[in-house]
What does this fold into?
Amino acid sequence: MLMGEASQEIAIEGVTGERILLTSGESSVLVGLPEDLYLKRVAPIAARGSKNVLLMKKRPVQLSPQARFGMDFKVEGEIRYLGWIVDGNEKDGYVLYADLNANGDLTDDSPIRFEKENGEYARTFGVRKDSSSPGLMKLVIVHETPFGESEPSTGVRVHKDALRKGLIRVGGRNISFGLIGIPGAYRKAVFDLNGDGELECIPGSKEFFHLREQFVRINETDYELLIDTRNGDELRLKPLPVLRAETEVLRPGYPPPDFTFQDLEGKTHRLSDYRGKVVLLDFWFMSCIACQKIIPQMVQTYDKLHGMGLEIIGINGVDDEETLRSFLAEKKITWPQTIQFKTDSPVFKRYRVSAAPIYYLIDRDGKIAVQREGGEGILAEVVRLVDPSSDAFTRP
It folds into this structure.
């Protein structure tokens, strides 16, 4: 499906080549839990009847005491989070059981065995959900310490974004570009703007753009960014008659769109009133697994750095006030919250938010410092901005 199909202006077009799996740039880490702790954390989700999570109904019988459990494995465009188990050790190797056929039964999926390469256990493979193209991914065994635990646990780092390269002629010259994503979700583009022959596929790079930004500036001209999100086959750039206002450019170094909001106590705030502080805008909702996963670390970071100039603004998209208040009390979340129903909220529209979690980190000068989809690495960026002298490392 081509985003912006209704546009009638003539656009510049570029097509892409074969998919190349990216093993640098964005990735996600699935941290495993001991079975008893896993069952304890699954229980509240089961009680809520979340439609985003397919709980594990059956698991392999012969597992070692080292087996670790999780519920956040995703394949291609599947909206549900799937159950998984990783078992093994450094001497004998590792095996992953994942509910790839999405039926809740981990005994009828082929085990994924890892091979040691360059000092790490890894496996690259393709998943074929139906007759469509396979979803390439690389899995790497990692050891991380889950929040609230004192010992590292076995987990899996997942690389599944693929790059499709192409050439597009802009302003009288050919520019290399690439589309990044997975089947059904090609939402990122990268352009060789400095002409060095390399595509900087790292979020935050001046060459890296997300579809939600909507616009890209090339050779002092702004273009509307139109991507074939389903297959990543095609990129279109629609030239705009005038440059966009700075506050409409959602990139590091630009001022964020200002907005007024009312917190749950009825007090009115304005984003620009926080100038001089480091502000983390957190677009989230309660049933979002990735949103919940980072909350304990966010609470810890906020308690430590709030007195040093950190503020977090929670912008909730779907939850009702009574349920949200109960959740905030349970999780000890004390930073300001506002409910902005995303279907018609001006805030969601101005920040072009269509998924969660989305984070915008704003520096003390009131400029966007980091924008991030998902929580990986965002709190480390918060610590860096608030207290540059700190040697503390916060993974999420």
In short: Residues 20 and 163 are 5 Å apart (CA to CA).
